[in-house]
Specification:
Layout (H helix, E strand, L loop, with lengths): L3 E6 L3 H9 L5 E7 L3 H11 L3 E3 L2 H6 L4 E4 L6 H10 L3 E4 L7 H8 L1
Parallel strand pairs: 1-2, 1-4, 2-3, 4-5
């Protein structure tokens, strides 16, 4: 069975999720993305991931199959929609939407 390649957006809370992914036999942590280079460096050191990005668009252009959105909550809908449009599966680490309008954006 081929492993699902996971990328994480948000190296803060996402770093803890990254560690959990490493225990799943069906997934592979492929990349972490964060605009804060210091936080990104700490996540790389903690996880050993080989691909890192400071640009979300670059993460979406990479070979990941799915993205865990662990960015600030108000950005989850925007980031989830971007990932789906890029052909990626999405897991939002908290509630993805805070309004019915945002729910409609996700469905569309």
């Amino acid at each position: 069975m081929e492993k699902v390649r996971i990328g994480i957006l948000g190296a803060g809370r996402g770093a803890a999720l990254a560690k959990a992914i490493q225990y799943s036999p069906s997934t592979e942590l492929t990349a972490i993305c964060d605009m804060d280079e210091e936080r990104l460096g700490k996540a790389i050191d903690a996880t050993g991931v080989t691909q890192s990005f400071t640009s979300y668009e670059a993460l979406l252009d990479s070979d990941v199959d799915a993205v865990i959105v662990a960015s600030p909550m108000p950005l989850h809908v925007e980031h989830s929609v971007q990932a789906v449009r890029a052909g990626k599966h999405v897991l939002s680490e908290v509630t993805a939407a805070t309004s019915i309008e945002q729910c409609h954006q996700l469905v569309e």
